[in-house]
Design a protein that fits this description.
Blueprint (H helix, E strand, L loop, with lengths): L1 E2 L4 H11 L5 E8 L15 H14 L2 E10 L8 E10 L11 H9 L4 H7 L6 H11 L26 H19 L8 E7 L1 H14 L4 E6 L6 E6 L3 H23 L2 H10 L3 E3 L3 H11 L7 H11 L3 E3 H4 L29 H17 L6 E4 L16 H13 L2 H4 L5 H4 L2 E3 L6 E3 L23 H7 L34
Parallel strand pairs: 1-4, 2-8, 4-10, 8-9
Antiparallel strand pairs: 2-3, 3-4, 5-7, 6-7, 11-12
Pfam families: CAF1
GO molecular function, one term: 3'-5'-RNA exonuclease activity
Family: Belongs to the CAF1 family.
C-alpha cells in the first residue's frame, strides 16, 4: 500500500503490531541523489575510505520513498509459505533543505515517481535528537500539573503595567466583565467565559494579571483567522472536569508530537523489534536511514558500524548473499555426483535478475511436485500482483528483496553461516565488502586480473574459458600424481564487474 500523511497513523500502528512476530523485514529506498561531483569511488578504496565518500552523499540528499515489507511464517512454524505486508512510504521533511541530483531525479521520473504525492502528501520525519527536543517542547514535564493550552506565566518580576489609555480601558472592561460572570449565580453552571480577543502583547498582560487575581481559573488562548490575534477564555472547572480536560490536552499533544515525529516512529519500531533486516546492495539505504532518522553520520567508520549494529543486530544484503556459499551455485540435482562441477546460479547481481532466478526455480519445483517457498500478500497489501514490474518503487523493491531472502532465510539464519553472513554488505566497484558486524576483511587473497575490452557480461563463458586451469605448483615442490588428486585444490574463479 502507498502510505502518505492521510493514512500514516493506520500504517504505523499496523507495523508496530506486526513487527514482533515478523520472521524478517525487507527495506528499500529511493533518494534524491546518490553521487557528488568530485567524489570518486575507486577500485582500491578500503571500506573506511568508501564510507567517508558515501557519508557525504547520505548527509546531503533526501529520501523520496521508503519501502518496508514484513514477512511472516505461519504460526505452525513451517517456512514454505510467507505472508507479506508491504508499505511504500512517501517521505517529505517539514523543514530543512531539499537537495537534488539531476541524474537521480531523471531516473525516478523515468520510473514513474509521483512527485505531487511526494511533495504534498509525504510523511514528515525527524531524527532521534530532534524527536527528543520536540517531546520536551510539546510535552513539558509539568503538563499534568498545568494542563492549559497556553500557560499563564508566573511573574518573576513586577507584573506588566499598561501605559496606553486604550489598552487600560480594554483591560478594565474585560476584567470587570469576568468578575460579573463569576458573581452571577444564574450562570454558575457555565464553565467558560470569553474574556477578550487581542494581540500577543495584551495576552501576556492578561495571563499575568488573571493568574494573580483569579488563581483558581484556567486561562487559555484559541487562534482566530487573523494572524497574531487570539481569543482568551477563562475556564471554571471542578476537579473531574480538570482531569478530563488534562487527558484530552495530553492526547492532543501526543497526536501533534506523533505527526511531527512522523517516520522516525517507524524507524524506531524497526530497531526496537530486533528482527532481521534485509536489503539488496543496501549500504546506502542504511546510511540514508541513519542520517535522516537517527542523527548525523559519525565521522568514524568504526563508530558508525557500532551504532548501526546496536540498532540492527541482524542485517543481510541479498546482493552479497548470492555471491557466497551456499547460494551462489545451482543446487545439486539428486542424481548428480557429489564432486560434479557446480554451475553459477546468477548471471547478474541485479535485483530483477535474482528475483527471476528464484521465481523460475520455484515454478520448476512446483511442476515436479517438490516443496518450494511461496509468498502471499496480506489483505489490502496486494498493490503488487504476480505480474507487477514496478522496480525502483521502494515498496516493490522491498517486497522483491524479501521474496529473494525468503528462499535463502532458512540457511542464512542457521547458526553456522550466520556469523559470516550477518552484517556483510556489497561495496560497489571495489575489491572489498563492508562488514558492519565485525572486522572488515581487507586482505588480498589470490590473484586479481583486471581485464579490459570485454563486450558482454557473461560470467559463465569466462568461467568456462578458465575451467582447465589448475593452481600452479611452486618450484621445488613435486607435482602431485593422480593418486594424490584429492589433495589438489581447484581454482575458485570469481568474476567481479567493475564497469
Amino acid at each position: 500500500m502507498n502510505v502518505t500523511k492521510a493514512n500514516f497513523t493506520q500504517a504505523v500502528e499496523e507495523i508496530e503490531a506486526l513487527l514482533p512476530s515478523a520472521s524478517f523485514v525487507a527495506i528499500d529506498e529511493e533518494m534524491t541523489g546518490i553521487s557528488i561531483a568530485g567524489i570518486v569511488e575507486r577500485l582500491e578504496d578500503t571500506p573506511a575510505q568508501r564510507y567517508m565518500k558515501l557519508r557525504s552523499v547520505a548527509s546531503r540528499y533526501n529520501i523520496i520513498q521508503f519501502g518496508i515489507a514484513l514477512f511472516h511464517a505461519p504460526p505452525s512454524g513451517e517456512v514454505d509459505t510467507y505472508t507479506a505486508h508491504v508499505y511504500n512510504f512517501y517521505l517529505f521533511p517539514e523543514a530543512g533543505p531539499i537537495n537534488m541530483e539531476g541524474a537521480a531525479i531523471a531516473f525516478n521520473r523515468d520510473h514513474g515517481m509521483d512527485w505531487n504525492m511526494w511533495i504534498r502528501e509525504g510523511v514528515p520525519y525527524v531524527n532521534r535528537i530532534q524527536a527528543e527536543k520536540l517531546a520536551d517542547r510539546i510535552l513539558p514535564k509539568d503538563a499534568a500539573e498545568h494542563p492549559t493550552i497556553e500557560e499563564a506565566p508566573r511573574p518573576l518580576k513586577p507584573p506588566m503595567t499598561l501605559s496606553r489609555a486604550a489598552d487600560i480601558e480594554m483591560a478594565d472592561k474585560a476584567i470587570s466583565a469576568l468578575r460579573s460572570w463569576l458573581a452571577n449565580e444564574a450562570r454558575v453552571d457555565e464553565t467558560e467565559f470569553e474574556v477578550v480577543t487581542t494581540n500577543a502583547y495584551m495576552r501576556r498582560f492578561f495571563y499575568e494579571t488573571l493568574g494573580i487575581q483569579f488563581p483558581s481559573l484556567i486561562v487559555e488562548s484559541r487562534p482566530t483567522p487573523t494572524r497574531g490575534i487570539s481569543t482568551m477564555f477563562a475556564l471554571r472547572l471542578n476537579e473531574a472536569q480538570k482531569a478530563e480536560r488534562a487527558a484530552k490536552l495530553r492526547a492532543d499533544k501526543e497526536e501533534e508530537l506523533a505527526r511531527k515525529v512522523g517516520f522516525r516512529r517507524v524507524f524506531k519500531a524497526l530497531s526496537d523489534a530486533r528482527r532481521p533486516v534485509v536489503g539488496h546492495g543496501c549500504m546506502m539505504d542504511f546510511l540514508f536511514a541513519f542520517s535522516h532518522f537517527e542523527g548525523p553520520l559519525p565521522e568514524s567508520y568504526a563508530e558508525y558500524k557500532r551504532a548501526v549494529h546496536t540498532l540492527f543486530p541482524i542485517v543481510f544484503d541479498t546482493q552479497l548473499l548470492i555471491q557466497r556459499d551456499p547460494f551462489r551455485f545451482m543446487p545439486l540435482r539428486a542424481e548428480a555426483a557429489h564432486d560434479a562441477p557446480r554451475e553459477p546460479r546468477f548471471g547478474s547481481k541485479a535485483l530483477g535478475n535474482v528475483y527471476k532466478v528464484f521465481q523460475e526455480e520455484a515454478a520448476l519445483a512446483k511442476t515436479k511436485g517438490f516443496p518450494t517457498i511461496e509468498v502471499m500478500f496480506a489483505p489490502s497489501h496486494d498493490r503488487y500482483g504476480p505480474q507487477s514490474d514496478a522496480f525502483h518503487e521502494a515498496g516493490y523493491d522491498a517486497y522483491v528483496t524479501g521474496y529473494v531472502f525468503a528462499h535463502m532465510a532458512q540457511q542464512a539464519l542457521a547458526p553456522e553461516p550466520l556469523p559470516r553472513l550477518n552484517g556483510h554488505m556489497t561495496m560497489f566497484r571495489a575489491l572489498y565488502d563492508f562488514n558492519l558486524a565485525g572486522e572488515d576483511d581487507v586482505t588480498a587473497v589470490g590473484v586479481y586480473v583486471h581485464v579490459r575490452g570485454l563486450t558482454g557480461r557473461d560470467a559463465t563463458a569466462i568461467t568456462s574459458a578458465f575451467a582447465g586451469i589448475t593452481a600452479p605448483v611452486p618450484d621445488g615442490v613435486t607435482k602431485p600424481s593422480m593418486a594424490d588428486v584429492d589433495h589438489v585444490v581447484s581454482v575458485d574463479l570469481v568474476v567481479r564487474w567493475i564497469n
